[in-house]
Amino acid sequence: MLFTCLSGLGALLLPCVTAQSTFTPARPPSLPLAVKSPYLSTWFPAGSDGGNGGYLPGQWPSFWTGQTTGWTGLIRVDGKTFTWMGAPANIEAASQVAYEYTSTRSIFTIHVDDKVSLTVTFLSPLTPDDLKRQSLTFSYVRAEVVSLDGAEHEVQLYTDISAEWVSGDVSAIAKWEYGKVDDIAYHRVYKQDQWEFGEVNDRAEWGSVYYATDAVNGTTSLSGADTHVRSAFVDNGTFEEAQDANFRAINDNWPVFAHAVELGSVGSSSTSTLFTIGLCQDSAIQFLGKDGLVVLPPLWKSYFADNLTALSFFHKDFETSSGLAYELDNKIADDSRAAAGEDYLILTTLAARQAFGAVQLVGTTDTPYVFLKEISSNGNTQTIDVIYPASPIFFYLNSEFVKLLLDPHFENQEAGHYPNKWAMHDLGAHYPNATGHTDGADEAMPIEECGNNIIMVLAYAQRSGNTDYLHQHYPILKQWAEYLVEDSLYPAEQLSTDDFAGHLANQTNLALKGMIGLEAMSRIATLVGESGDAQNFTDIAHKYIDQWMELGNNFSADPPHSILNYGNASTHGLLYNLYNDKLVSTNLVPASIYTQQSLYYPTVKETYGVPLDTRNRFWTKADWEVFCAAVASEETRDLFIGDLARWVGETTESRPFTDLYMTDDGRHPVDPWVDFKARPVVGGMFALLALQ
Ligand SMILES: *[C@@H]1O[C@H](CO)[C@@H](O)[C@H](O)[C@H]1NC(C)=O
Ligand SMILES: *[C@@H]1O[C@H](CO)[C@@H](O)[C@H](O)[C@H]1NC(C)=O
Ligand SMILES: *[C@@H]1O[C@H](CO)[C@@H](O)[C@H](O)[C@H]1NC(C)=O
Ligand SMILES: *[C@@H]1O[C@H](CO)[C@@H](O)[C@H](O)[C@H]1NC(C)=O
Ligand SMILES: *[C@@H]1O[C@H](CO)[C@@H](O)[C@H](O)[C@H]1NC(C)=O
Ligand SMILES: *[C@@H]1O[C@H](CO)[C@@H](O)[C@H](O)[C@H]1NC(C)=O
Ligand SMILES: *[C@@H]1O[C@H](CO)[C@@H](O)[C@H](O)[C@H]1NC(C)=O
Ligand SMILES: *[C@@H]1O[C@H](CO)[C@@H](O)[C@H](O)[C@H]1NC(C)=O
Question: Which BP terms in the Gene Ontology apply to this protein (predicted)?
């Protein structure tokens, strides 16, 4: 919808709003801009609680934490300058008229002075079948300009980044250099005191940030104080000075790194400019594996000789990369629509970049790994009960990612670096350190992680046909299954993945994970030819599930439902572990339970969904809602998905897609305060598609 300024009396009644933007398919809490890895994760807060509604001109982009990553866009049309991104002082904002997101893109349409239209596309490519491309921690911005009124206009385009991109501490000293390679002009910015594997406020304190564009005639580049560099552009539309050589603190006269592009006369045929932004690090992860503690490089170093070769490949790969991105966007959109309609597409397309943006390809082409950061909840490395809820997107797009995520866990635990008989929770207390838990003092979630590992391994083998993997890891998988035999009928007091809810004994949903895990282990045993084990584990699983029927459900309630924990008959909760029975086709649980839950959930739903369980009246988990939806009746599935999609568009949150929110007011929990955001578990939005 477009509003023009009202003159006269109207202006007294209504503020002068030049334009309002459309948002398609929804206006998410935060709009992904450059979201490609745990350390390249810049967003645009949109919700009213901290954001400006989603208007690119007029507010600074920020890292997923909310810390500003200064990123500016200006455009000069017939000598007058407007802002198209960020909030630089004293420069009028252009008018955003549309925003659209796909799985890989955020696309803004901005009108400048009613003279030209500017389309800015942020593309963070996802290439799950192409590890070389996926390994690159770069992202594109493409700006396309065309006349709006048919007349020709003189246009210059400007963009800069601030040194805020290189550290979480704005008093840190930044250094920089400007150069050209393969007809590409680039700024390199980095922290003077490189701190390998160090973080401040979740930001990487090592590596180099690059901001590049084509080195064509008329393009000039300049570093210097923000106000100085921007006013040079405002005055002249181009730079004539030398680069700033005074290395200093990020917040000391805020050095920025700019490119100004002369577009000349722009009429009815459009002209476009491409920018690349990214982060290069020589080392990515410290890992305690079979050879002891090793440093793992980012995987792109196996494909490219150095930073500049990688940068050049990425920048010149735009046509191919963009084509692949369109294919992926269309696949996800078409499959989502076919699975559950337009509302479902709102969820999957918003989740895709965020899920991949929490992982990083590392190692070498001989031994690649995928490492994952448990973003925001605690920063753990390679948390199994975060990999598990995220896994549907990987099962749907390329199940090898699940193997590459589990490999480091197998390697560490099979080398004897973990003393407990159950499976480890995570590989390190803080990313990027995967130094394990040789003392066994990780956050224990024994049934959760044993079950998750066995179920994910079977799901992977079923999709990939890789039964060697089962042979290779059979002993430890069996060890974990033996733990499930011990503990999953009457689970001892322990945490489930929903650790914010605390410890509890006899959790119905957790017991179900253990039992399906045992049936999955029986299938694994069959696949490796261990028929005695196969028979034993399936016998136990069936014996347990028969008892679980009575222990874990209240059949005399109206309507009947599963309960949170045994003997606590008036409780209820999302029975999301039922999903596993379909994911690995174990068919352990009677069909009556699926029907029962489908009929029950609508009776306890609130405004924005079904609460997680009775320990908190309103809070819920978006990932678990979609797990439930995936195995529910069509009607109940659509109820879950419809409420969640509506929440995405209506919540006042401005944090990247949270998975924990209140079903009454749509906000994150305030008492107790739990502030999940940007977590990879939104890969669980793909739960329906992982079953197909
Ligand atoms: C990782 O370990 C290194 C020491 O090897 C330490 O300096 C760094 O602070 C750790 N990183 C994080 C994020 O805890
Ligand atoms: C590439 O990045 C590494 C790590 O930041 C740095 O040591 C190296 O000097 C960079 N090389 C170039 C050419 O920028
Ligand atoms: C750039 O400008 C130079 C000097 O004006 C000219 O020789 C060259 O051909 C131009 N290159 C292109 C690609 O237009
Ligand atoms: C603008 O360009 C003129 C010459 O064309 C130059 O003298 C002046 O310094 C430039 N102004 C800025 C702010 O760069
Ligand atoms: C079945 O498995 C349990 C648990 O691992 C074990 O104690 C028992 O001996 C097994 N029985 C047979 C017949 O293999
Ligand atoms: C678990 O449930 C069983 C059966 O109701 C009960 O006997 C047992 O005491 C419970 N365990 C705990 C730790 O509460
Ligand atoms: C089942 O739930 C109903 C309603 O909450 C309750 O009255 C009843 O006591 C429960 N059944 C059992 C066996 O506890
Ligand atoms: C029953 O569940 C509630 C949460 O809904 C919990 O606070 C309480 O401790 C449970 N009671 C028992 C006996 O397990």
Answer: carbohydrate metabolic process
